[in-house]
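Hi R.,

As promised on Friday, here is the backbone we talked about, encoded as structure tokens. Could you run it through your design pipeline when you get a chance and send me back a sequence?
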């Protein structure tokens, strides 16, 4: 059975390697962690020269100029932090920064808290300070203060949801999810995808997700569909000591290493032999290659370990192929989300490969599903 699966798994893996969403999976409409906006250049002077309409020049008050420079310094430091953080999150084999990177990022957020002057700067400094803690709940007071000053801050709500998840505060998870949904911070297309994702997970199975967007939308649909028999574990949230402690209480064995990377995932799976796992196809393929001999495609996930026959795999994926939405929500797909449609392809290739029905009707049905994936809506 496994040998037969390996015949077509190479094709699936090849498609899967092209089907990765942005590694940050950010839902933020506020702080842009991928911002490429350039910091304005500062004049090497205590005076700023401004050209008037009649091309005459005047000198700006030195105190005002000092304030402008301090604001520009804050923005420059904040942009540097966000750029560094985005680079770390784009790593396809690790969710954790190196020790040197952590030190640099911590120095950056400490500086930001020291120089923040305006209300917006104070909010951003507190949010970035929590963000740098990698979901350390001990930093929650700074996050709560930021949300006190701006209760609807998108990235603040994003991180509040994360903090609620790592501490196991189910009421706060529910309330924050409702607020995020009401503010439209989870795109409709992502919700469509999450419905198909949760349907792909069998009962009594643990779904492993990668970043924030796939995790939050999956949890939202888990609640909506009342799928209480499945657990969801986020590789991103596993950076939190509180999250690991919570999973221990739920009966999982947790690896001792602090770095969450490819090796960590392998260890997590191996020290929980009684558990059955479903890997979301949003997980970069670097993580999954170590399991490839014992994976079974199942809708939008790979099941591990594989206990299904080829006939069972075929029947299940045929059912999903007929019933999934393919993110056909009637909305234009954002570029960062559109790539998720490729994650439907392994399911279709599985049906195409395992099906003994090679009729024109069958081929036409398979091709129509491929066309759905290529559509921009």
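Update: got your reply. Pasting your designed sequence below so it's all in one thread:
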């Amino acid at each position: 059975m496994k040998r037969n699966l390996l015949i077509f798994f190479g094709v699936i893996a090849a498609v899967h390697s092209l089907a990765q969403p942005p590694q940050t999976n950010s839902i933020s409409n506020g702080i842009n962690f991928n911002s490429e906006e350039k910091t304005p250049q500062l004049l090497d002077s205590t005076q700023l020269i401004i050209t008037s309409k009649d091309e005459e020049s005047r000198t700006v008050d030195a105190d005002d100029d000092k304030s402008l420079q301090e604001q520009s310094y804050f923005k420059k430091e904040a942009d540097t932090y966000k750029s560094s953080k985005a680079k770390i999150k784009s790593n396809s084999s690790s969710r954790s920064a190196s020790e040197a990177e952590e030190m640099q990022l911590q120095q950056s957020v400490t500086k930001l808290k020291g120089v923040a002057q305006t209300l917006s700067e104070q909010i951003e400094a507190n949010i970035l300070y929590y963000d740098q803690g990698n979901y350390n709940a001990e930093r929650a007071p700074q996050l709560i203060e930021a949300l006190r000053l701006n209760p609807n801050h998108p990235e603040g709500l994003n991180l509040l949801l994360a903090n609620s998840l790592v501490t196991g505060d189910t009421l706060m998870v529910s309330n924050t999810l409702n607020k995020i949904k009401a503010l439209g911070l989870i795109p409709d297309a992502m919700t469509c995808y999450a419905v198909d994702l949760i349907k792909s997970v069998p009962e009594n199975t643990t779904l492993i997700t990668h970043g924030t967007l796939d995790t939050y939308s999956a949890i939202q649909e888990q609640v909506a569909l009342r799928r209480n028999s499945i657990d969801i574990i986020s590789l991103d949230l596993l950076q939190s000591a509180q999250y690991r402690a919570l999973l221990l209480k739920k009966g999982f064995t947790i690896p001792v290493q602090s770095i969450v990377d490819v090796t960590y995932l392998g260890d997590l799976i191996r020290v929980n032999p009684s558990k059955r796992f479903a890997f979301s196809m949003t997980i970069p393929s670097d993580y999954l290659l170590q399991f490839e001999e014992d994976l079974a495609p199942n809708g939008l996930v790979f099941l591990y370990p594989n206990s299904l026959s080829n006939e069972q795999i075929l029947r299940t994926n045929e059912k999903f192929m007929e019933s999934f939405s393919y993110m056909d929500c009637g909305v234009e797909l954002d570029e960062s989300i559109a790539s998720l449609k490729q994650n439907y392809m392994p399911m279709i290739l599985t049906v195409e490969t395992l099906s003994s029905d090679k009729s024109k009707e069958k081929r036409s049905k398979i091709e129509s599903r491929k066309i759905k994936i290529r559509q921009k809506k």
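One thing I noticed while checking it: The chain has two domains: 2-24+186-374, 61-169.

Thanks again,
M.
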